[in-house]
Every structure is written in structure tokens, then in C-alpha cells.
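User: Design a sequence. Structure:
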């Protein structure tokens, strides 16, 4: 592969060092095409164990690992903004600090970008696991072609954020990542859509995503509801969805995120928003 690329990720105080190690090894050791750089934003103080782990990887990989330390936790949107700004290369991939990349993830994405130079961002499918990587509990499938992605975005986010690889210029031209509780990625894609960026998803599973039995149950409450509806209101104001679509989204999220108890909400997400 001739394209050089950076990976951006972030860690914060609640991340477990053993999960970070697995994630970094899936980037630096197990890939058929390894990144030329990892920009890791340390979002505020972290545990001594995590600090030692990052020093170990810095010793082993030198300048290939660029650790940016923030004195205070600024949130994911701000951490990713810094990651993009500090990435050396024109192609940037996203990765969460507790997930596991498929070994051929970057090889496939780079091949797609090389053969589709019009594409600004390419993601893929994810599986979700609990405890051990082979305990797969779900799969989130998203559409693959640009037109279908644009249509899907009208109701739900059509990119699995931990899988994306994008052109740095396209993201910067759209204003880069910005803070938006739980929806930094969706907000970014909307602004890229406004600029007619070209999207794609590969049909392949690119990331095995760490999950938990209570993950979907936590996606409720007024703060999360306000974030989701704020995105839909923005899309309505920009003419990206109709008022009817906005109302349907509002009612669905009001029921799921404000009326259902956590246990039932978790069941709804696992049953209707994921495949096993």
C-alpha cells in the first residue's frame, strides 16, 4: 500500500489498561498493513497503570506513537479534534481504546480509498462482544453505498464510528470534530453531508467492539434524549429531514430514552438495533 495514514484514539481515567493493551496490539502488532502513526490523546489524568502502559509502548514504538496529554478531561469531541489536528498524514483512521481491529482492516480500507479516489470517508461493519472477543453478542450492520448512507442518516447514524477512515482535509473543511454529548460523530457526518462528501461502508466486519450487558440500558435519560433530539432538530433546520420525520424520531426516542426502564431499553436495543 502506498498511502500513509494516522490513527487517532483517546484514553481517559476510566479506561482499563488491559483493554488498552489489546486495542493497541490490534493496531501495532496484528495488522497486515500497520499505521504510520498513532495519535493518542490522554484526556485528563489517568491511572498509574495506564501511564506505565503508555510509557512502555512509547519506548517500544518511539515517534510512531504520539501521546498528547491534557491536564483536564475535555471530552471525546475535543480529544478527537486534537487528534485530527495533530495527525501527520492526509488519511486518518479512528479507533476506540478498548476495541479490537480485524487484522486486515486497514489493508481493506486503504485499498478501497485507492480504487475510489472520490470517497471522503469509509467505514465498515462491527461485531460486539462481552468479556472475551469470541463471545459475540451482536452485529451492527450499516448500508454501504453513498446514497443509502445519506438516506439512513435521516433516522440513525449510518457509520460505525470506531471503523471509519477518512481524508483529513474533508473533516477539517467541515469544521473538525466538535463537542456534542454522545453524538460527536453524527454531528461530524451531518456537516460533511452538507458539503456533499462521499461516504462508503465496506460489507466486512472491521472492528470487534467491546460491549456490556448494561451498555444499551445506559442510553437513556434527559441528557441523552436532548443530545439525540438536538441532532434531529439541527437536521430539520438544515432541510435534511422533513417535519414528519422529525416528529417520528422525537416520539420514538421519547419512548425509548425517557419512558422505558433501563432493563427494557437494553432489550429493545439488543433486539431491534442489533443482529446476532
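Assistant: Done.
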Amino acid at each position: 500500500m502506498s498511502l500513509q495514514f494516522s490513527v487517532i484514539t483517546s484514553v481517559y481515567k476510566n479506561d482499563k489498561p488491559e483493554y488498552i493493551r489489546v486495542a493497541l496490539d490490534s493496531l501495532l502488532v496484528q495488522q497486515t498493513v500497520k499505521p504510520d502513526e498513532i495519535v493518542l490523546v490522554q484526556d485528563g489524568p489517568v491511572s498509574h497503570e495506564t501511564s506505565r502502559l503508555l510509557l512502555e509502548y512509547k519506548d517500544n514504538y518511539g515517534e510512531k506513537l504520539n501521546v498528547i496529554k491534557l491536564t483536564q478531561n475535555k471530552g471525546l469531541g475535543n480529544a478527537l479534534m486534537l487528534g485530527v489536528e495533530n495527525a501527520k498524514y492526509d488519511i486518518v483512521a479512528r479507533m476506540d481504546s478498548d476495541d479490537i481491529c480485524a487484522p486486515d482492516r486497514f489493508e481493506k480500507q486503504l485499498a478501497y480509498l485507492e480504487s475510489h479516489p472520490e470517497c471522503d470517508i469509509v467505514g465498515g461493519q462491527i461485531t460486539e462482544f462481552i468479556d472475551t472477543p469470541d463471545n459475540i453478542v451482536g452485529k451492527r450492520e450499516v448500508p454501504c453505498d453513498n446514497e443509502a448512507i445519506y438516506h439512513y442518516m435521516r433516522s440513525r447514524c449510518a457509520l460505525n464510528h470506531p471503523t471509519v477512515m477518512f481524508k483529513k482535509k474533508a473533516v477539517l473543511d467541515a469544521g473538525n470534530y466538535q463537542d456534542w454529548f454522545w453524538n460527536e460523530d453524527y454531528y461530524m457526518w451531518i456537516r460533511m453531508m452538507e458539503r456533499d462528501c462521499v461516504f462508503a461502508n465496506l460489507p466486512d466486519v472491521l472492528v470487534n467492539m467491546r460491549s456490556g450487558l448494561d451498555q444499551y440500558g445506559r442510553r437513556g435519560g434527559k441528557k441523552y434524549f436532548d443530545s439525540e433530539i438536538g441532532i434531529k432538530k439541527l437536521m430539520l433546520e438544515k432541510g435534511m429531514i422533513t417535519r414528519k420525520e422529525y416528529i417520528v424520531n422525537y416520539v420514538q426516542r421519547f419512548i425509548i430514552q425517557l419512558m422505558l426502564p433501563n432493563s427494557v431499553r437494553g432489550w429493545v436495543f439488543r433486539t431491534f438495533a442489533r443482529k446476532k
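The mean pLDDT is 91. Strands lie at 5-11, 37-43, 65-70, 91-94, 100-101, 121-129, 136-140, 165-167, 199-210.
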